[in-house]
């Protein structure tokens, strides 16, 4: 007996990942820290890390020690970089494995300095140039550098900051680049091996820095542009799919799904085998979202349920049980679906649930 295939699955296109990485490299002209936090934005942490491990990147950006540990246990050679402040209870492990933390507070400097007494810890310095999520403010930089000069347990190998509005406010972001560049220029003794990084995906697409030699794209390497203008150069890595289970011919005036959305015409209604239990957002209910079925965009009908959705296929010439549906992917971008759902593509991608089988091609 063979195992039956999954109801809902996500096809992950490895060649698209490499294409997007190449776009990031060429567009920025800089080294890449690929950001793979959040289970590689729902694409599968370890599989994506293995793919990127062949690319000679200086770092893979992760959110926490759990993600870093997964990489180390799988024998990934590229260094995990912990994005954001660390908890006290995480630092011994960070030091032991040689993951790279970014130092966000005097307390972190002191603690890592102690932990590095026998074997120096390589770390970056985090600057707060507008994000307000950790890092030293401009007036604190001098004091932080002084503490680091005295901290023999820490080897400072880089400096970074983060952009809160690179896809929303170019006036602020340009000022932020200028502030960051001038702060970096005040750090003495930098050589070309010293990592200087500021840009996320939106930052690397649209802005220029005098000092950076590394960029930290996330969304972009998965083939989704934070700015619609650059989408044409990218290839979406994930296609989220399911299948039609049954087609119901329902009369005008009949209700569909919870809450009974009333049909305005006689309708051919296809049931597709996934729902919010797979990460297809319930907030899409009644928002004019579409599903790609047999190369056509078909409207979602009524509310999204946990395991099934209902799609209007009245206009399709042919639709049969077993037909594949694309919920998002190259033919219907997750960024467009996110707008309908009132959220952002980052959230939709990271909320695809574990029961969705990832299939790597
Ligand atoms: C998540 C994150 C990124 C990547 O952001 P994208 O917008 O997905 O490119 C870069 N830097 C930091 C500090 C992050 O937390």
Task: Tell me the layout of helices and strands.
Blueprint: E1 8-12, H1 14-28, E2 31-35, H2 37-41, H3 45-52, E3 59-62, H4 65-73, E4 79-82, H5 91-97, E5 100-103, H6 106-115, E6 121-126, H7 141-150, E7 154-160, H8 170-185, E8 195-197, H9 201-206, E9 214-215, E10 238-250, E11 255-256, E12 261-262, E13 267-272, E14 290-293, E15 296-301, E16 309-312, E17 324-328, H10 334-341, H11 345-350, E18 357-360
Parallel strand pairs: 1-18, 2-3, 2-9, 3-4, 4-5, 5-6, 6-7, 7-8
Antiparallel strand pairs: 1-10, 10-13, 10-17, 11-12, 13-16, 14-15, 14-17, 15-16
This protein binds pyridoxal-5'-phosphate (PLP).
CATH arch. level architecture of the largest domain: Alpha-Beta Barrel
Structural class: alpha/beta
| CATH T-level topology of the largest domain | TIM Barrel
Count of domain modules:
2
Strand order of the largest sheet: 8-7-6-5-4-3-2-9
Number of strands: 18
- Strand portion: 15-25%
Helical region count?
11
CATH superfamily of the largest domain: Alanine racemase
Largest sheet: 8 strands, parallel
C-alpha-based Rg, rounded: 24 Å
Describe the model.
With 361 residues, this protein is α/β, with parallel strands linked by helices. The chain has two domains: 14-233, Alanine racemase (TIM Barrel, Alpha-Beta Barrel); 238-360, Lyase, Ornithine Decarboxylase, Chain A, domain 1, CATH 2.40.37.10. The protein is 28% helix and 24% strand. The protein has eleven helices and 18 strands. The strands form three sheets. Strands 8-7-6-5-4-3-2-9 form an eight-stranded parallel sheet. A six-stranded antiparallel β-barrel has the order 10-13-16-15-14-17. Helix 6 (106-115) links the parallel strand 5 (100-103) and strand 6. The mean pLDDT is 97.
């Amino acid at each position: 007996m063979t195992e039956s295939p999954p109801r809902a699955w996500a096809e992950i296109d490895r060649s698209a990942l490499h294409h997007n990485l190449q776009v990031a490299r060429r567009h920025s002209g800089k080294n890449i820290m690929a950001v793979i936090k959040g289970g590689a934005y729902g694409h599968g942490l370890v599989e994506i890390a293995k793919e990127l491990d062949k690319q000679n990147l200086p770092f893979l950006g992760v959110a926490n020690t759990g993600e870093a540990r997964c990489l180390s246990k799988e024998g990934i050679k590229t260094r995990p970089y912990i994005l954001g402040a660390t908890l006290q209870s995480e630092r011994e492990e960070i030091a032991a494995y040689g993951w790279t933390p970014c130092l966000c507070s005097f307390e972190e400097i002191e603690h890592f300095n102690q932990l590095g007494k026998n074997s120096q810890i390589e770390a970056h310095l985090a600057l707060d140039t507008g994000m307000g999520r950790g890092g030293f403010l401009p007036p604190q930089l001098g004091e932080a550098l002084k503490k680091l000069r005295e901290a023999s347990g820490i080897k400072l190998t880089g400096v970074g900051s983060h952009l809160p509005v690179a896809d929303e406010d170019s006036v602020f972001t340009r000022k932020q680049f200028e502030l960051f560049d001038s702060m970096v220029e005040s750090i003495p003794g930098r050589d070309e091996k010293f990592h200087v990084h500021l840009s996320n995906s939106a930052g690397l697409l649209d802005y220029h820095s005098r000092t950076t030699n590394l960029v930290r794209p996330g969304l972009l390497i998965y083939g989704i542009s934070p700015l619609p203008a650059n989408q044409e150069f990218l290839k979406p890595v994930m296609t989220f799919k399911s299948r039609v289970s049954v087609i119901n011919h329902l009369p005008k005036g009949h209700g569909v799904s919870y809450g009974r959305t009333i049909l305005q015409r006689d309708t051919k209604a296809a049931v597709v085998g996934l729902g919010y239990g797979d990460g297809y957002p319930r907030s899409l209910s009644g928002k004019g979202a579409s599903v790609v079925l047999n190369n056509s965009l078909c409207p979602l009908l009524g509310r999204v349920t946990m395991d099934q959705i209902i799609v209007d296929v009245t206009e399709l010439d042919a639709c049969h049980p077993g037909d594949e549906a694309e919920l998002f992917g190259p033919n219907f971008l997750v960024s467009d679906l996110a707008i309908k759902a009132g959220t952002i593509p980052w959230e939709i991608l990271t909320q695809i649930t574990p029961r969705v089988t990832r299939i790597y091609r």
